[in-house]
Amino acid sequence: MSYIIAIAGKGGTGKTTLAASIICYLKEQNLGSILAIDADPNSNLGEFLNVDVKEDMGSIIEDIAKNPDQIPKGISKDRFIDYRIQTSIVESDGFDVLTMGLPEGPGCYCYANTVLKGIITKLSGDYDFIVIDNEAGMEHLSRRTMRKADYLLIVSDFSSVGLKTAKKIFNLIKKLRIDIKNKGVIINRTKGNSLFLKNEIADLKLDFIGELPQDNELLKISKNNLSIFDLDKKSKFYTSLKNMLSKMRMSTG
Asked: What is the pTM of this model?
């Protein structure tokens, strides 16, 4: 079975940047086959990975709903959607990408989440690693799009509000009894005030994985429309990330 790494957190904390960076790390370490799933309707993980996503789940579901005549005889609508989605997976150098997108129409979004659950289950034996960039916030957890994960990384920013949001996510996971083997919060864009972080994290009783520093190299990547693979591997951010991930000892074995 695949080793599933899920990334969650409130919007604007660098969730997608972290997801792309983890994929970059897994590829660099040659740890096995990788499927990147962009489960955020505001899909931009492909851009971070320099992958041209021509079709996503949302557009596929919408296209079939508007043009049902394309469904071959003898094949159910659900099976045809499943086939179209699996063929939409983009194969890149060292990893593949599946993008959810944002379907239109009443009920489409809930249906897309149901389809995504099934797709993750079906593909979980085809890859060594699955990295899921989840929708910002907590609603996707309530819908149980993510049924289980080997590691859930909750991204927070350098603020009390961000940490309290992380705590709410932890509590919701416990309440919904989602099968999470390991979990913890990562504080992104820190500026060296670790004492504040440690006090806040201790007060909220959060499982702390580590912190990632604010890095101008990431700003250059964003401003110049470059991919995460263009990031200097000796940069503060990437060096800290590598040290953090190596301690987590992620393994498919």
From this structure: 0.91
For tokens 């695949």, the residue is: 2
* Domains contained in the chain, CATH given: 3-246 (3.40.50.300)
Distance set, CA 38 to CA 2, 15, 99, 109, 111 (Å): 17, 11, 5, 15, 16
pLDDT higher than 90, residue 70: yes
- Alpha carbon separation from 111 to 36, 71, 78, 81, 116 (Å, rounded): 21, 18, 10, 11, 9
* Helical spans, DSSP H, in the chain: 15-28, 45-48, 57-66, 77-87, 108-123, 139-142, 160-176, 194-204, 216-223, 236-248
Q: Which two tokens stand for residue 57?
A: 């789940």
Which DSSP category does 207 fall into?
P
Identify the DSSP state of 71.
Answer: S
